[in-house]
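User: I would dearly like some help making sense of a protein record. I have put the entry right below:
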Amino acid sequence: MVDRNVDIEERHVEKKSDSSLVASTFIKYAAYIIIFFGALYFLVTYVFPKF
């Protein structure tokens, strides 16, 4: 066998979890829930007693 000079490229793939994306999604849905309950509170407190 003849000695061959073969360059082998090694790749290390790391799965990265983007915690900032998870946090921003949580904040977005938490804001939706707060707005929903705020609108519900407004309806119960100010609109329903008028009937």
